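Budget justification, computational time. The allocation requested in the original proposal was used primarily to generate structure tokens for proteins on the priority list. As evidence of use, we reproduce two of the resulting records. The first is shown immediately below.
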Amino acid sequence: MPFFSTTISYLGTYLSRNLSSLPNSSNLSHISPKKRSQLIRLAQAVLTDYFHYTRSLPFVHAEQIGKNSFYSLDDPISKIELSLSTFPKSFEKFLMYHPINEFEFFFESIGITREEISGFLPPNKFFFAEDRRVLNAAGALLVFGFPWTKLGILCKAEASIFNKDADNLSRRLCEFKGYGLNTVSVIGICLAFPFVLGGKGDLGVEARALFGDLKRIFVDSDLGSLVEENVDSWYEICRKIRLFYDLGCEKGKIGELMGKSRNIFLEYPEDVLVRKIDFFCRLNVRKADIGLLLLESPEILSFDLEAPVISVMGFLKHFGLGLQKSKSVTRMYPYILGRNKMANLPHVMRALDLHEWFFGMMRNGNHYLLGNYVLIHPDEDLDKDYIDGLQKIQSSTTPVHTINKLNFFHGIGFGENSLTMKALERVHGTSSEIQERFDFLLHAGLEFSKLCTMISFVAKILNQKPEILERKVDFLIQEMGLSLQYLHVFPAYLCFNLENRIKPRCRFHAWLAENGLCTTNYSLGSRIATSDKSFMARLYRIHPAIPKLWLEYYSPQKD
């Protein structure tokens, strides 16, 4: 899920930079934490002096690189006698006779991780004297007010910024202030939208559209006066705004709407916005419309969309689904009926093929129904067979494993009913393995609702590994010339062995047809699902000599 991953990535970077001051390195692991910490502090001080006095860097740059270097110091420290009293002199001498890659220390100091750093190092260059653009650009950003350790955010998102002329960068930043924004707000905006500092020449159309929106939000709607005057606060609120652009809301078109709903960005933490957005994204509707829904109806953000229990039919009735349509749902999707969790509602709607209807109801002003839904009574839609099955699981030898698999079924929309329990019994593997197989079939092109129906009929299709499913799908489409949608009619196709059943029988039937020996166009299901005895009887009816040909040339037992 992209929105979760963005937030988690940012949080992980923040924690690693601010809560860890020591490299987790095997080279120094034999040293006590206290001594290691002392050595690194001494090394940082020597490194700062080295960059300033020996390499002639401005002290402010040398200090920032020195005090924010940790894991890059690991290798040189490990090559020196580790005595606290003599270490500074020894390390100073080491640096004089053993050149270091200055860019490596620079990129670490601005927040690039150990694993990422190699991707940013310029080829065949060790010293800033060989290419000062990176350092000059960083200097211009630092002078403007950017925190040094946050420059890595810009570098990872838009590396070209550090190849720009320092004066051009400074002019670009001052241009942003012309929209009525102060220095801190411009920094927060650039960190959240690094692309505005990239590119060549004048400010691009997309960046101008963005700043037009931001002016309406922060200046015209006065949101800026309510944000704490520090970089972290501005960066946080701009990341929240970026969530809506990431959904596809058009820059230059939603500034006024965001301004009217400015409290969204003040009252709700980023992780809350991410979870609500993810909830609606699982409906598989147009993402930009999700952004507009939340901006137009911000009260949705206060709804509990995770913990409440729903009765599927009760919920549909609550939202006004007609009587005839309700009967159709009961008849066509019995495996969806019963109870489920509100958190699984998006996939319940997709399994019923009602996701667009449901989202349309939300957009048309009925979103309040999502917030005021409750079960009519505590026993509504309880399924006794399901409860009995649940008790058996809880008293089994592997309750956690089985419950996780059961949660997979509920997660794709299957309700708390006996049909779900029957499907559960037929599926093997861990919940993550089953989810991977389901996702493969979904991404291959099967409709969510149709795939759930297939599983309700032939749950064993989820016992196939993704690579096996892929080979069977490829054979169906490329060699048989059939559409993937044929699986709606014959889902059991995926359960038969490709090499020992599907290929031999299909290719033999094709050979018979090509040679005019069989004029009947047997369905794929008839070719594959027929028992060996019936298959041989069919071949004999076509011609008494054909079973011998099958056994000698096509049968998997021919050898």
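The second record produced under the same allocation is shown here.
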Amino acid sequence: MRRLGFVALFALMIWVSHSCFVGCQKPTVVNLGAIFTFDSVIGRAAKPAVEAAISDINATPTILNGTHLNLIMEDAKCNVFLGSTEAFQVIEKEVVAIIGPQSSSIAHMISEIANGLQVPLVSYAATDPTLSALQFPFFVRTVQSDANQMIAMANLVDFYGWKEVIAIYIDDDYGRNGISVLNDELNRRQAKAFYKFPLPVHFTQNDIISLLNQSKLLGPRVYVVHVNPDPKLRIFAIAEKLQMMTSNYVWFATDWLSATIDSFAPMNRTVLHVLQGVVALRQHIPESNQKKDFMSRWRKMQQKGLVTSELNTYGLCAYDTVWTVAHSIDRFINDGNNLTFSSSGKLNDTKTTEMNLEKIKVFDGGAILLEDLLRTNFSGLTGQVHFSSDRNIVTSGYDVINIDKMAVHTVGYWSSIFGFSASPAETLQGRQNSHSETDQKLHSVTWPGGKKERPRGWVIADDERPLRIGVPYRASFVEFVTELHDSHKIVGYCIDVFTEALKFVPYDVPYKFELFGDGRSNPKYDQLAKMVADDVFDAAVGDIAIVKNRTKNADFSQPYITTGLVIVAPIRSSKSSAWVFLKPFTVDMWCMTAAAFLIIAVVIWVLEHRVNDSFRGPPRRQIVTMFMFSFSTLFKTNRKENLAP
């Protein structure tokens, strides 16, 4: 019996050791999914970058040593339905994470699938701010969110002092939610008007023409364009044909434009002439040796025909995304976790005859891998890769670019720490953070039309109603303002001043005069000022005195008529004379003044004669001293000086 127990214990030890060996050994292959649109501005750069990253990871012994990373890619073809079906096909192959998609609309759909199956979804291009919501806990973003980009765009609009903006955007999750953030940020900066003009997802030339013509009816001439990357630059090409790229207009674009431009081959950059004066944002990528080496490698790949596009910021983000997932998988495995999948009870309970839902399994270690993803911190092509609490990559800011003469110029940088600066944020580390207006700097910008001066940014709209100018219809002093009975024309001195002042305004201001009063009695000016405050009149012109109670209701211009008490006297011509100093006083006044001097002289002589030797002597001397002393009182104080001992 004792011998039998020993054999059983030995067998149990062998079984436990074998189980631990099987459970703790590294897997030979780990499947990684990728869903994005291959044939697109972003996809043509992302696909070779992702493949290059997979090749580098599998060739690097310091990461996933002994484990091969197998990439399974599917083409979403810019379609939400196809992207969703491709997601199920990828998940059937037991992937531990999915890279992509680039479309925010597809990301919304796949995120729900990722939540249910606990598969982290790591996107390098879906920038919709709402994807950071708690609704999508398995969504991780390795590109800057549009929440940051719209803060930068609002700061850029406010930097130049414009308060009225027209936004052109794609009417989907990406466009609507991004523009919504921009609207909120502009409101925080006291913007006066924000007009939204949505475009269909698959917009046509006619859609653009109709939209731009509608926007021309409004007063603002500051445009912000937030659409998907478009190699044909259709919005700007049509705007140029509609004479909307002139010096009266201002055009801003989000980073879709910089991604599009960066994808152009050097020989295809002649199309940039339609972008003259456009200002756009580009995700800031710090300069590094890693980035330079990869760009050199990219050029070699182009020479071999392996890539058909230039490298843009999304390609760099895609490369770092693969490395981010690889680092997290490596940590996951090294911590002794197993890559296991189990069937979902909810899916098994679903009665279906056509769909093979039993093939779809839940990743058991998905929550742990997600934590490892969010703890990732390494130096990549885009800089330091680490994440914030809302599962977004920590932002490095944006470049501010300006297109002039078919060339792209960097005119400055924006970061959440320093605001606008002429140098990248990484070179400003250690300096005091400041967002004051005096510290915000950008280089000179060339605006549409080739001008360096900041455009006004608005015009009087075509359908703008004329200004209602209230004028008092007086019964007296009609020289200031009145109505001619024969022509019903408003004339007068105040009207002349108003029309002359309008000549200094460099644009046309439509207006119409509206009489206030019946012309039989003078109207109440306090009521006229209140009607301006109540928006009955837009302004008032007339002989309106500036008094305290009226200034509480309306703003006044500088007075153009001198007010106060004045003396009106006739002007008499007189010849100049040496005796002109006698003019201020009459003869009687001069006689009284002389008598006063005489009396003062006599009084002083009487008082000083007996005690002061200066008032003694011959009569002539006494008379001279007496009158000199009296006269000197006009110019000095006659007193004895007390000297300090």
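A brief technical remark on that second record: The two ends are 133 Å apart (CA to CA).
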